[in-house]
Amino acid sequence: MTRKMVGLAAFMVAAAWACSGLMPEPVGDPRSARMVTGPSGDPGCDAATLVSTGGAFPKNPNILAIRWTGYSNFELAFNGKVILLDTYFDRGSLFPALGFKAADVKRADVILLGHGHVDHMSDAASVGAQTGALVVGAPVTTEKLLTQKIDPKQVRTVTGKGGELLQFPGFTVEPILGRHGEPPKDVTEAFQNALKPFAKGATPEQAKERAEIRSRGTNDPRVIAEGTIAFLITLDNGFRIFYRDSGGVVTDYERAAMARIGRVDVGLIAVSAAFLHSLTSQRAVEHIRVYRPDVYIPSHHDAENDGLWRATEPLFRAVKETNPSLITVSRGYREPVCFDTENSVQRRERH
Asked: Which domain does 321 fall in, by range?
């Protein structure tokens, strides 16, 4: 069997796992020429347990494990460090279970909040207090956060307008001002109205639960233009992750940063809320053209039990027409994707 046939066979096995109802086997570094179709032997890249809730780090300190935890929440774990991106864990009984609770999160070095809507920051105060992690957000986000039970010394306000490079042992974080998504109301209302006849109404207990959760976020209109922060995370070896938790248009601040940087290794990018594939794909293509990631991992595409998930396959088709070499990855809750951070865009371009 030729090397090409072996690679094809491996891909078909991985695809079969992905289409089954079982937990798929880890793919290892998805940029590798070879697809790994069996367990790696490293719990840090095999287990669906967050490091922040007691799971194992990858054995190799150069390996980065990324786990999606619903909406635009991610955990990044590498070399003894844990970064949490957004904190919306206790979503309530109207949502699919994530497999853990906010109270289970005991370890984090920093929490980066993309913006202050409830579905991005509702558990920031409690998780920050439990872990002692620094919590970073825009002014409108931290204003809301500081009304809750967290030590003000743990809260860092950023504008994303430049000159705010945050240094941590092993990595840096650059906040960049983005813009919140603004999907057409006629489109979103049409989809919501179409679902109403099939959706179960909330019980009084669920309505009370939902109101309490929502009280921990903000609906301040400043979120759109002043309160949405993208984060460029750069590991000390040069590996770059670009995180954006809302599917809005690209800002001049983002374009300027990417003109300076060039490319990133992984883009963790929210899907537009516009539902229509023509609109969500258009925004995804804009993001990919500006951030130029090696690997694209979408987020913010799940929904309530009676809601409508936003399709990712049309996005993948559209972005691959723009960049055929782009690797697209979409995993279930807590399923790890591991990267060899020594294999970075920066190093490859240098050599």
From this structure: 63-350
